[in-house]
Amino acid sequence: MQYTLLILVLPLLSFILLGLMDSKWKPKVAGYIGTSVLSIITALSYTTAFMYFTTAKLEGVYQQITPFNIEWLRFTDFLHINLGILLDPISVMMLVVITTVSLMVHIYSLSYMKGEWGFQRYYAFLSLFTFSMLGLVVATNIFQMYIFWELVGVSSYLLIGFYYTKPEAVSAAKKAFIVTRFADLGFLIGILILSFYTKTFDFATLTSGDVSVFASTAGVSFLGISVMSWALGLIFIGGAGKSAMFPLHIWLPDAMEGPTPVSALIHAATMVVAGVFLVARLFPVYFFYAPEVLHGIAYVGAFTALYAAAIACVQTDIKRVLAFSTISQIGFMMVGLGVSGYGGHEGLGYMASMFHLFTHAMFKALLFLGAGSVIHSVHSNEMSNMGGLRKHMPITNITFLVACLAIAGIPPFSGFFSKDEILAATFEFSPWLGAAMSLIAGLTAFYMFRLYYNIFWGKEHKHEHTPHESPKVITGPLSFLAILTLFIGWIPFGKLVTSDRAEYIIHLDPMIATVSVLVSVIFIVLATYMYKKDSFVPARLATTFAGLHKAASHRFYMDEVYMFVTKKIVFKHISTPIAWFDRHVIDATMNGFANTTQWISVKTRSFQSGQLQQYAFVFLLGTLLITAIVIFS
Amino acid sequence: MGDLFINLFSGPVPIEAYLGVSLIMFFAGVYGFLSRKSLIMILISVELMINAADINFVVFNRYLYPGQLEGFFFALFTIAIAACETAVAIAIIINIYRNLSNVDVENLNEMKE
User: Fold this and answer.
1) Which of A79, A254, A608, B99 is most buried, with most CB under 10 Å away?
2) What CATH number did the domain enclosing B63 receive?
3) Residue to substitute from A612, A617, A624, A627, interface B, most B β-carbons within 10 A
4) What distance in Å separates residue B1's CA from the closest CA in chain A?
């Protein structure tokens, strides 16, 4: 399995090459280099997946293979940071997901970003991002994951702020980086607490089921909460920042300022699932040592899903709708993890969450790329500038419809299988939570079809030039992802990825399946009634529930709350005194050193004035001094 | 010191009287050297200092070594040397005057810093 190193190294080399490439070469060359490197590593990932899933089983349990584990920093005898590659069902699955979506985005961007200034820089940053994300998922220890976590944050900042001459893009990039960095503080403290007690960073050791690793945490608690709960809770905060859980979700809608392929890659399919991946990676630790944190994760995920779905129902910018949809779906994944148990049927939530991660990546990337295709021909993000586009953009229409059906959970599309399993797991945990999640799934269907009808059906908007179907380089990835969405639901995921890496056959519960499909169909019918043809119903509903509508379109004022806290509390009472101290005390000291030195130098310089009489005076004084010394000693 | 005052007004002149005179002359010369603006005045002060030193030589010769004459001869030499040195100094001052049109010592500060 040594070739897996190439999967990491090639994108890094591509980033360095494209970053330092001479601008005399045509920008197209950068696109071709990036895309060909990605095709190589996609092929390698598929090979790795095939080899892993067919050969790495031992008595029905998949083994964790570590082709590389190089010691990098050694702190003490047993605490060291390694760099390596860990192959595990979830990391292999993520390799496939990341490389596939990244390859689709690379191909798509050849046409979408054609002629853009900074084309080469774009592909360099895409390669950097791919490298960082791949390094994150194959990390052998939690510190390596943290390093790549930060790298992913940097790549995201660079890509969101790609149009850096636009102030909104710059502030969106800053916001994303600052919010995730702030959450990463919790992550780092959690890592430190965890490694202090367990004396190791290594995932294989932490999740091996060996009780002695955690022996020193027994009975230790701080403020009434056990130290493992603190550590794992703080680690989850880091994951919540990256995965845009409430209240750290504020950066994701603004991150839509970046180019649409970037939104597809980073903010739909790969980076935002890093938090889910983190919880899944440490899942045995969470389940056995901090189950209440796990339940907390479930409730946070559920609330986030509801919050985001409510806001998505009233957004008019199609990318914002998709952004909130992403937040909501990640909420689903967190709920799946939170309600899960460990092993066999108990671990259904875990398996469902990973399955949903897999299918969601595909259809959400498809949705974003389709939205990009629409934006490219209409030159606008707003729904009011679209309508009736199905006549002009047939392929985009069909692929977008496929993705909407998938996210709404209609069989035989992939979303049905994954979402249904999450709902099944949730119902087993708590019927109320299950009912809530089913309702949110219905809301998902509603706003997605609202989006679909507003773009492709309804009255046409007057355009300067009629929109036309996008070139094959754009519709190719769309079709490929649509085909994947049709078929990946049938993969027997329980044989591949489960909580204890043993096989598990999924049973489809007919009751829950029918209930979820029914709820989705009802909401789709409602959306069709309201949006397929022009009707008064949406406007009348907006005026009837005016307060709620206004609050939802302002994202329930979360941004205003953050601005208030930042400006009126942090800036005014914390930053301003510190800035005063810095300028008037520290700078004054430094300036004082300089001024004193200058004063001394002026005084010393005056000894050499060139004035004869001054020299003679100094002579005289010296002579008198020596005389005095001689006489009086 | 009481001795000194008694001998000052009756009896031979004490050595301290002559040394006092030469002391006052010398420090008058020092003061003049340090506080005059014109180079000529500085030259005059230097002459005053040399003459004060000469007086010291003669006085020591007369009171401490009465039979010998080296002190007197040295004083004669010194007067001659002082005259030569004054000639050289005047030459320098004339050159300075030719370059700067005045003989203020404050203008001669190109060796500063």
Assistant:
1) A254
2) 1.10.287.3510
3) A612
4) 20
